[in-house]
Design brief:
Distance between the termini: 31 Å
Number of domains: 1
Shape: globular
CATH class: Alpha Beta
Strand content: 5-15%
Low-confidence stretches: none
CATH topology: L-fuculose-1-phosphate Aldolase
Strand order of the largest sheet: 3-2-1-4-7-6-5
Largest sheet: 7 strands, mixed
Order of helices and strands: HEEEHEHHEHEEHH
Length: 204
């Protein structure tokens, strides 16, 4: 557990330093043998320490002291739906969150960079539900099997990875792609389907 906790805390600090979370917003989890480690409720990821982490089993029961993030039902739903997911990063990154407040039915964010095209692929928008609610967890569970990145309307980003590093990279690619979309008002040249397919064949 010590190595896992250390890695999780290091990622939390990086998220804060890179401006992908602020205040006590955002949360991160890492699958472990009997459940998952998750950041606690109400504490800044920028100053988090290993002994403040909470641990939750795969029924949703907290295993020892430390109050899990209120978003733990969302993390639990993803881990139950996807055995291949080992880490989850949830951010309130500013450009992606801004875009979730603008998007409506029929929206589409095209891929602008090779990294996004390869890592993110499909980016569904989950309709708004109260943060921490079972309704949000259930809505995310329906989408999780098809993607490794989600936008939550008026809320933020969820990135799923085979490791903490991969989940962080996916969260960053989503933020960068959303930033390009906003900076160019959706008018930038995007990668063509043929270019995207080539990237996935070569990089995959």
């Amino acid at each position: 557990m010590d190595a896992s906790a250390k890695s999780l805390v290091a990622i939390c600090h990086q998220l804060y330093q890179r401006g992908l979370v602020s205040g006590s917003g955002g949360n991160v989890s890492l699958r472990v043998e009997d459940g998952f480690l998750i950041t606690p409720a109400g504490l800044s990821l920028g100053s988090l320490t290993e002994n403040q982490l909470a641990r939750v089993d795969l029924t949703g029961r907290a295993l020892f002291k430390g109050r899990p993030s209120k978003e733990s039902p969302m993390h639990l739903a993803i881990y139950q739906a996807r055995e291949d997911v080992k880490a989850i990063v949830h951010t309130h990154s500013p450009h992606a969150t801004a875009l979730t407040c603008l998007l409506g039915p029929g929206w589409y964010i095209p891929p602008y960079t090779p990294g996004y095209a390869y890592l993110v692929r499909h980016l569904p928008l989950v309709p708004y539900h109260r943060p921490g609610s079972q309704a949000l967890a259930d809505a995310i569970r329906k989408e999780a099997s098809l993607t490794n990145g989600l936008l939550l309307q008026n809320h933020g980003v969820v990135a799923l990875g085979a490791s903490l590093a991969e989940a962080l990279s996916i969260a960053e690619e989503i933020e960068d792609n959303c930033r390009i979309y906003l900076l160019t008002q959706g008018q930038a040249r995007s990668l063509s389907p043929a270019e995207v397919e080539e990237i996935r064949k070569v990089m995959g």
